[in-house]
Amino acid sequence: MRNKLVAGNWKMHGSLVANLALLTRIKEAATGFKSACAVCVPFPYLAQAQAALAGSKVAWGAQNVSEHAQGAYTGEVSAVMLAEFACRYVLVGHSERRALYGESDTVVAAKFAAALQAGLTPILCVGETVAEREAGITGAVVARQLDAVVVNSGVAALKHAVLAYEPVWAIGTGKTATAQQAQDVHALLRGRVAGGDARVAQALQILYGGSVKPGNAQELFAMPDIDGGLIGGAALVAEDFLAICHAA
Ligand code: PEP
Fold it and tell me: What's the confidence (pLDDT) of residue 1?
């Protein structure tokens, strides 16, 4: 039996004042959560998240990480730096990073490895575009994205990671995959991992992300291979995020 995890992705939103109210509310409510909960905040707010959440049931993390350990990489942030702020999680391969910043499967795999090396838990995001779904290649796309990481780090590395299936067409669009559509892809991903190591596959948390809201969370989280959610827009509204956490 896998524990559920609900992780918020704040994207490039927030302010010191607004964050404090949100973090305080989540921290207070988290004492009653059955599932694990985390927030992935913009880099400048990591210290604030650490100060607000230390000692609570809520973990925190970042939304991106450099594949490099250190050096002349202006504007980048290393995994070791994230670890200094006691981050537990870091998103890697979010579709916005892949689409807007040209992150290839190879770069994502290197970022995944860098996160693990620093003791962080990478949340590896995979998902197809609407054109890929319509072309009937969803399975091939997510398998390719997953395989790049497995080839680079080995299947056992997934013991220390979380996978997130996020259909690109469902992110921030208000269009959610049906529970069955999501379950089908989650089962496919778990099956693919099982091809390398059945025990790793059985233990692997696979989150669904893409317009999860209080109204659809329960149905999604009830599916056998959906182990929680990666939440964008709804993670910025305390009552919505908390309702989703309770649904898990
Ligand atoms: C995301 O940004 O990862 C996401 C799933 O966003 P939203 O919940 O807004 O679709």
Answer: 75
**CB 230, CB 125: distance < 8 Å:** yes
CATH match of 5-247 with 3.40.50.2300: no
Pocket, ligand 1, Cβ cutoff 6 A: 9, 11, 166, 171-172, 209-212, 230-234
Residue ranges for the chain with pLDDT beneath 70? none
pLDDT score recorded for residue 185: 98
Element (DSSP H or E) covering residue 8: strand 5-9
Query: Which one is catalytic: 103, 128, 166, 186?
Result: 166
Distance from the alpha carbon of residue 5 to the mean position of ligand 1, in angstroms: 15
Instruction: Please count the CA atoms within 13 angstroms of the CA of 84 that sit on its side-chain side.
Output: 7
Is residue 166 annotated as part of the catalytic site, yes or no? yes
Gap between the Cα atoms of 185 and 183, Å rounded: 5
* Residue 172 CA, ligand 1 centroid: distance in Å: 5
How far apart, in Å, are the Cα atoms of 234 and each of 40, 52, 100, 209?
A: 13, 20, 22, 11
Domains of the chain by residue range? 5-247
Residue 146: per-residue pLDDT: 98
219 exposed, middle or buried (CB, 10 Å; 0-12, 13-18, 19+)?
Answer: middle
pLDDT of the residue at 22: 98
